[in-house]
Amino acid sequence: MTVDREKILEKFAPLRVADVCDAMDWLMLRNIGLMSRDIRPLFRPVRVCGIAKTVRYVPTNKVVPTMSPEEYTKFVEDWYANVCTYPFGEIIEPGDIIVIDAHDLDVGLLGSNNSLAYFNKGARALVTDGGCRDTDEVIREKVPVFCRYISRTMVQARMEFESMNKPINCGGVLVRPGDVIVGDGDGVVVVPQEYALKVADIALKILEEDKIGRRRLYEQAGLPLDETVL
Fold first, then answer.
1. DSSP characters for 10-61?
2. Partners of residue 145 on adjacent β-strands
3. Strand, helix or coil at 186?
4. Which of 90, 167, 150, 154 has its CA nearest to residue 121?
5. Over residues 75-83, mean pLDDT
6. DSSP class of residue 146?
7. What angle do CA 44, 100, 199 make, to 5 degrees?
8. What is the pLDDT of residues 180-211, one digit of tens each?
Protein backbone atom coordinates (compact mmCIF):
# COMPACT_ATOMS: atom_id res chain seq x y z
CA MET A 1 0.00 0.00 0.00
CA THR A 2 1.15 3.55 -0.65
CA VAL A 3 1.79 5.95 2.23
CA ASP A 4 -1.34 7.98 1.38
CA ARG A 5 -3.47 4.84 1.32
CA GLU A 6 -2.13 3.72 4.68
CA LYS A 7 -2.68 7.16 6.15
CA ILE A 8 -6.27 7.31 4.89
CA LEU A 9 -7.12 3.86 6.25
CA GLU A 10 -5.58 4.73 9.62
CA LYS A 11 -7.40 8.04 9.95
CA PHE A 12 -10.80 6.64 8.97
CA ALA A 13 -10.54 3.50 11.13
CA PRO A 14 -12.28 4.91 14.27
CA LEU A 15 -14.84 7.04 12.45
CA ARG A 16 -18.56 6.48 12.32
CA VAL A 17 -20.74 7.24 9.31
CA ALA A 18 -22.29 10.07 11.34
CA ASP A 19 -18.89 11.68 11.98
CA VAL A 20 -17.99 11.51 8.30
CA CYS A 21 -21.34 12.92 7.16
CA ASP A 22 -20.98 15.84 9.59
CA ALA A 23 -17.46 16.54 8.38
CA MET A 24 -18.70 16.56 4.79
CA ASP A 25 -21.24 19.22 5.81
CA TRP A 26 -18.46 21.34 7.33
CA LEU A 27 -16.61 21.18 4.01
CA MET A 28 -19.73 22.24 2.05
CA LEU A 29 -20.13 18.73 0.63
CA ARG A 30 -23.73 18.43 1.80
CA ASN A 31 -25.57 15.27 0.70
CA ILE A 32 -22.65 14.13 -1.46
CA GLY A 33 -21.87 10.43 -1.18
CA LEU A 34 -24.92 9.44 0.87
CA MET A 35 -25.98 6.05 -0.46
CA SER A 36 -29.65 5.11 -0.45
CA ARG A 37 -30.97 4.22 2.99
CA ASP A 38 -32.18 0.95 1.46
CA ILE A 39 -28.56 -0.29 1.35
CA ARG A 40 -28.13 -1.78 4.82
CA PRO A 41 -25.68 -4.11 6.61
CA LEU A 42 -26.70 -7.73 6.97
CA PHE A 43 -25.74 -7.66 10.65
CA ARG A 44 -25.02 -5.17 13.42
CA PRO A 45 -22.92 -3.95 15.07
CA VAL A 46 -20.56 -3.46 12.14
CA ARG A 47 -18.13 -0.69 11.21
CA VAL A 48 -15.91 -0.67 8.14
CA CYS A 49 -13.79 1.72 6.14
CA GLY A 50 -11.79 1.05 3.01
CA ILE A 51 -10.75 2.09 -0.46
CA ALA A 52 -13.24 1.51 -3.27
CA LYS A 53 -12.74 -0.93 -6.06
CA THR A 54 -15.74 -0.78 -8.35
CA VAL A 55 -17.66 -3.32 -10.44
CA ARG A 56 -20.67 -2.99 -12.73
CA TYR A 57 -23.24 -5.61 -13.73
CA VAL A 58 -26.20 -5.12 -16.07
CA PRO A 59 -29.44 -6.98 -16.79
CA THR A 60 -29.32 -9.57 -19.54
CA ASN A 61 -31.65 -9.87 -22.51
CA LYS A 62 -30.42 -13.31 -23.49
CA VAL A 63 -33.23 -15.86 -23.75
CA VAL A 64 -32.84 -19.29 -22.14
CA PRO A 65 -33.96 -22.06 -24.50
CA THR A 66 -35.73 -25.14 -23.24
CA MET A 67 -33.17 -27.79 -22.31
CA SER A 68 -32.59 -30.84 -20.14
CA PRO A 69 -31.16 -30.54 -16.59
CA GLU A 70 -27.84 -31.88 -17.90
CA GLU A 71 -27.75 -29.27 -20.65
CA TYR A 72 -28.72 -26.61 -18.13
CA THR A 73 -25.76 -27.54 -15.94
CA LYS A 74 -23.44 -26.81 -18.88
CA PHE A 75 -25.38 -23.60 -19.60
CA VAL A 76 -24.82 -22.42 -16.02
CA GLU A 77 -21.12 -23.26 -16.13
CA ASP A 78 -20.73 -21.27 -19.35
CA TRP A 79 -22.63 -18.31 -17.90
CA TYR A 80 -20.31 -18.06 -14.91
CA ALA A 81 -17.23 -18.59 -17.07
CA ASN A 82 -18.04 -16.20 -19.91
CA VAL A 83 -21.04 -13.96 -19.20
CA CYS A 84 -21.41 -13.15 -15.51
CA THR A 85 -17.79 -13.39 -14.43
CA TYR A 86 -16.20 -12.20 -11.18
CA PRO A 87 -12.77 -10.93 -12.33
CA PHE A 88 -12.42 -8.36 -9.56
CA GLY A 89 -11.48 -11.13 -7.16
CA GLU A 90 -8.01 -11.11 -8.70
CA ILE A 91 -7.30 -7.41 -8.04
CA ILE A 92 -8.32 -7.15 -4.38
CA GLU A 93 -5.77 -5.52 -2.07
CA PRO A 94 -5.93 -5.53 1.75
CA GLY A 95 -8.03 -2.55 2.79
CA ASP A 96 -10.31 -2.57 -0.27
CA ILE A 97 -14.08 -2.37 -0.19
CA ILE A 98 -15.75 -3.85 -3.27
CA VAL A 99 -18.58 -1.61 -4.46
CA ILE A 100 -20.97 -3.18 -6.97
CA ASP A 101 -23.39 -1.44 -9.29
CA ALA A 102 -25.81 -4.32 -9.80
CA HIS A 103 -28.39 -2.18 -11.60
CA ASP A 104 -30.84 -2.50 -8.67
CA LEU A 105 -31.42 -6.17 -9.52
CA ASP A 106 -32.80 -8.55 -6.89
CA VAL A 107 -30.31 -11.28 -7.83
CA GLY A 108 -27.95 -13.21 -5.55
CA LEU A 109 -24.71 -11.96 -7.06
CA LEU A 110 -23.08 -12.28 -3.62
CA GLY A 111 -23.37 -15.25 -1.29
CA SER A 112 -21.66 -17.11 1.51
CA ASN A 113 -18.99 -18.61 -0.74
CA ASN A 114 -17.71 -15.74 -2.87
CA SER A 115 -18.08 -13.05 -0.19
CA LEU A 116 -15.91 -15.07 2.20
CA ALA A 117 -13.36 -15.67 -0.57
CA TYR A 118 -13.05 -11.90 -1.16
CA PHE A 119 -12.88 -11.27 2.58
CA ASN A 120 -10.05 -13.80 2.84
CA LYS A 121 -8.19 -11.93 0.08
CA GLY A 122 -8.26 -8.73 2.14
CA ALA A 123 -11.52 -7.02 1.22
CA ARG A 124 -12.96 -5.32 4.29
CA ALA A 125 -16.55 -5.33 3.04
CA LEU A 126 -18.78 -5.62 0.00
CA VAL A 127 -21.37 -2.99 -0.89
CA THR A 128 -24.03 -3.49 -3.56
CA ASP A 129 -27.27 -1.92 -4.70
CA GLY A 130 -28.28 -5.47 -5.64
CA GLY A 131 -28.69 -8.64 -3.64
CA CYS A 132 -26.98 -11.17 -1.44
CA ARG A 133 -28.18 -14.68 -0.71
CA ASP A 134 -27.14 -17.39 1.78
CA THR A 135 -27.41 -14.54 4.24
CA ASP A 136 -27.63 -16.73 7.37
CA GLU A 137 -24.22 -18.15 6.47
CA VAL A 138 -22.79 -14.74 5.53
CA ILE A 139 -23.83 -13.45 8.95
CA ARG A 140 -22.35 -16.51 10.66
CA GLU A 141 -19.07 -15.93 8.74
CA LYS A 142 -19.09 -12.25 9.87
CA VAL A 143 -18.37 -10.96 6.37
CA PRO A 144 -19.56 -7.33 6.24
CA VAL A 145 -22.04 -7.08 3.36
CA PHE A 146 -24.16 -4.01 2.73
CA CYS A 147 -26.95 -4.68 0.22
CA ARG A 148 -30.33 -3.51 -0.99
CA TYR A 149 -31.92 -6.97 -1.26
CA ILE A 150 -31.81 -10.29 0.50
CA SER A 151 -32.04 -12.39 -2.64
CA ARG A 152 -32.58 -16.03 -3.54
CA THR A 153 -31.77 -16.54 -7.22
CA MET A 154 -28.57 -17.37 -9.11
CA VAL A 155 -27.16 -15.01 -11.72
CA GLN A 156 -27.55 -17.08 -14.89
CA ALA A 157 -30.00 -15.63 -17.41
CA ARG A 158 -30.47 -12.64 -15.11
CA MET A 159 -27.33 -10.47 -15.19
CA GLU A 160 -24.01 -9.96 -16.98
CA PHE A 161 -20.63 -8.55 -16.00
CA GLU A 162 -20.03 -5.19 -17.68
CA SER A 163 -16.86 -3.55 -16.32
CA MET A 164 -14.65 -2.97 -13.30
CA ASN A 165 -12.59 -0.16 -11.82
CA LYS A 166 -14.58 2.54 -13.59
CA PRO A 167 -16.89 5.18 -12.07
CA ILE A 168 -20.24 3.63 -11.16
CA ASN A 169 -23.58 4.48 -9.60
CA CYS A 170 -24.29 2.63 -6.38
CA GLY A 171 -27.21 3.61 -4.22
CA GLY A 172 -27.76 6.80 -6.18
CA VAL A 173 -24.25 8.21 -5.78
CA LEU A 174 -21.05 8.33 -7.79
CA VAL A 175 -18.35 5.90 -6.67
CA ARG A 176 -14.91 6.01 -8.27
CA PRO A 177 -11.99 3.64 -7.75
CA GLY A 178 -9.97 5.09 -4.88
CA ASP A 179 -12.83 6.86 -3.12
CA VAL A 180 -13.18 6.15 0.60
CA ILE A 181 -16.10 4.02 1.77
CA VAL A 182 -17.37 4.14 5.36
CA GLY A 183 -20.17 1.87 6.54
CA ASP A 184 -21.88 1.02 9.82
CA GLY A 185 -25.37 0.49 11.21
CA ASP A 186 -26.40 3.90 9.86
CA GLY A 187 -25.63 2.95 6.25
CA VAL A 188 -22.88 3.85 3.77
CA VAL A 189 -21.19 7.12 2.83
CA VAL A 190 -18.71 7.67 0.00
CA VAL A 191 -15.95 10.26 0.49
CA PRO A 192 -14.39 11.58 -2.74
CA GLN A 193 -10.70 10.71 -2.62
CA GLU A 194 -9.57 14.31 -3.16
CA TYR A 195 -11.28 15.34 0.10
CA ALA A 196 -10.46 12.24 2.15
CA LEU A 197 -7.77 13.60 4.48
CA LYS A 198 -9.61 16.89 5.10
CA VAL A 199 -12.82 15.01 5.88
CA ALA A 200 -11.00 12.63 8.23
CA ASP A 201 -9.32 15.45 10.17
CA ILE A 202 -12.62 17.22 10.82
CA ALA A 203 -14.48 13.99 11.54
CA LEU A 204 -11.88 12.96 14.14
CA LYS A 205 -12.48 16.22 16.02
CA ILE A 206 -16.24 15.68 15.86
CA LEU A 207 -15.84 12.13 17.19
CA GLU A 208 -13.63 13.26 20.08
CA GLU A 209 -16.11 15.97 21.10
CA ASP A 210 -18.90 13.42 20.98
CA LYS A 211 -16.94 11.01 23.18
CA ILE A 212 -16.31 13.69 25.79
CA GLY A 213 -19.98 14.65 25.94
CA ARG A 214 -21.26 11.07 26.09
CA ARG A 215 -18.63 10.10 28.66
CA ARG A 216 -20.10 12.71 31.02
CA LEU A 217 -23.57 11.30 30.42
CA TYR A 218 -22.31 7.77 31.06
CA GLU A 219 -20.85 8.89 34.38
CA GLN A 220 -24.05 10.68 35.35
CA ALA A 221 -26.04 7.55 34.55
CA GLY A 222 -23.61 5.27 36.40
CA LEU A 223 -22.86 3.29 33.23
CA PRO A 224 -19.53 1.48 32.84
CA LEU A 225 -17.33 3.22 30.28
CA ASP A 226 -16.92 1.35 27.00
CA GLU A 227 -14.86 1.77 23.84
CA THR A 228 -17.35 4.23 22.33
CA VAL A 229 -16.53 6.88 24.96
CA LEU A 230 -12.85 6.19 25.68
1. HHHTT--HHHHHHHHHHTT-TTTTB--TT-EESSSS-EEEEEEEEEEEEE--
2. 126
3. coil
4. 90
5. 97
6. E
7. 65
8. 999 999 999 999 999 999 999 999 999 999 99
pLDDT digits (tens, 9 = 90+) for 124-178: 999 999 999 999 999 999 999 999 999 999 999 999 999 999 999 999 999 999 9
Orientation angle between helical segments 17-26 and 196-221, nearest 10 degrees: 120
Omega before 167 within 30 of 0, i.e. cis: no
Report how far apart, in Å, the C-alpha atoms of 60 and of each of 153, 156, 162 are: 14, 9, 10
As a whole number of angstroms, the distance between CA 32 and CA 62 comes to 36
Sign of the alpha-carbon torsion through 76, 77, 78, 83: positive
Residues in CB range of 81: below 8 A, 6 or more apart: none
Distances (CA, A) of 81 to 85, 112, 160, 161, 170: 6, 19, 11, 11, 25
Cα–Cα dist 190/143, whole Å: 20
CB atoms within 10 A of CB 220: 8
* Residues 6 or more apart in contact with residue 59 via CB below 8 angstroms: 103, 105, 158, 159, 160
- Say what the pTM is: 0.95
